[in-house]
Design goal:
The longest helix has 16 residues. By secondary structure, the protein is mainly α. The protein is elongated. It has a 3-stranded parallel beta sheet. The chain contains 6 helices and 3 strands.
Length: about 100
């Protein structure tokens, strides 16, 4: 994005800034729709997988997710809210090529 000379420096910076929130608990995942609904200016949501898993009494797995049904259900709820509000996910891009491709969805 280029600088708009008719705007101040701060206005230009605000136009180029992203608002990213981080969800780190199952409670946050369960309330994500209620968070995004009144705040449409949020640009992306980072799912803190390690902390979210620990909040669910699951092994942290270095933040790399897991296959436990309760985790799969929580991630699905996060993805549903993201899709409903047309928001991209944010986070670390770590993993094998198939995992990395899936992060862009």
């Amino acid at each position: 994005m280029s600088i708009n000379s008719s705007k101040s420096l701060h206005e230009n910076l605000n136009d180029q800034a992203a608002i990213i929130i981080q969800i780190e608990t199952l409670e946050g995942i369960e309330n994500l729709d209620a968070i995004l609904t009144p705040v449409p200016d949020i640009d992306a949501v980072w799912l803190g997988t390690l902390d979210a898993r620990v909040s669910m009494n699951l092994p942290g797995n270095g933040g790399m997710g897991g296959t436990e049904q309760e985790w799969v259900d929580a991630v699905a709820k996060y993805q549903d809210a993201m899709k409903k509000h047309n928001k991209p996910a944010a986070g670390f891009a770590i993993g094998d090529p198939d995992t990395m491709r899936g992060m862009g969805k």
